[in-house]
Predict the 3D structure of the following.
Amino acid sequence: MRRPLALGLALAFELLSSRRAAAQSVDRGVAATLFQEGRQLMAEGKLDVACAKFEQSHRLDPGGGTVLNLATCREKQGKTATAWAAYREAVSLARRDGRPDREALGLEGIARLEPQLSRLTVSVTGRAPGLAVTLDGVAIGEVAYGTPLPVDPGEHRLQASAAGYLPWQGALVIGPSADQKEVVVPPLRPAPPPPPPAPAERRWYGWQTLAADGASIALIAVGSSSDASGLAVVGSLGLFLASPSVHWAHGHLGKGFASLGLRAGPTALLGVGLVVVDQGDQPSAGRNVAGGILIGLGALGALAAPVADSLALAREEVPASARGAKPAGPAPGAGAAPVSLTWAPRVWGRPGGAVLGVGGTF
């Protein structure tokens, strides 16, 4: 068992090694092509494109000769600090590779550019916690504060930032040869605290539940005093569902069920009281008293439920961000919208009676 496993691992390692070698071979080929194109373009005076070719070639296949050509290209562009750094890298690579000829060329370039180097000193006062200073988007470490740093001639931008502070930025122009500049980063000013969130507004929508209950009671009264018994049934159904539907329409699921419970309790007491009074074939004073008490409590609860509902349940807090905002549909890809229920009783008159129905959408 161990021999097949070892053989499989050896084959996998060989496959990975061959793929890595193939990729490196391709990178070297591309790097060589870019190097030759860079040489041609530099001879034609197309320095920006030539330097970019050399940089990409060195990135794919680092080599001392490529860095020397890149240093020469940057020097011709007038980027003395970048060219000086490239010559230093070329010297390091030449010593590693045992190429004294390239080392000599690199040292000559360093000696030629050092007297021309322009330097920038960045001084920082009042260092805020977590302060970050950048020069043209490149971070300057804290150890480099106060040290003259070689920079290319031209315009440069400095930025300083820290969490909880207002950012600072400045610009300066470095001269073409042996210019010495100093920039002092001032203490950052603390950022103003964010404004406190606006308090939520308390709203009362009890008038809606009272209106729903009032309409239901009116239907019961009209239906009880006429032959349209279906209206009374519709009104009774409205007493159960109209106010809870108002809460649900406001997005308060729990309050809707609590409203439903306020109405179910008195109705249950009324029903039990009627059963107690009608129970048995012989009249009983005790049953009548007990049934009357239950019926009375149920009636009192039925009258108090709409008032308690509107005063205790029909209140909500509306965030400031939602005031006056129009309800928006779901964003594309956000999924289905929340389910909402709307119901409406319907009554159709017909000879000898009425037809009751309930319709709605969800």
In short: The CA atoms of residues 189 and 354 lie 78 Å apart.
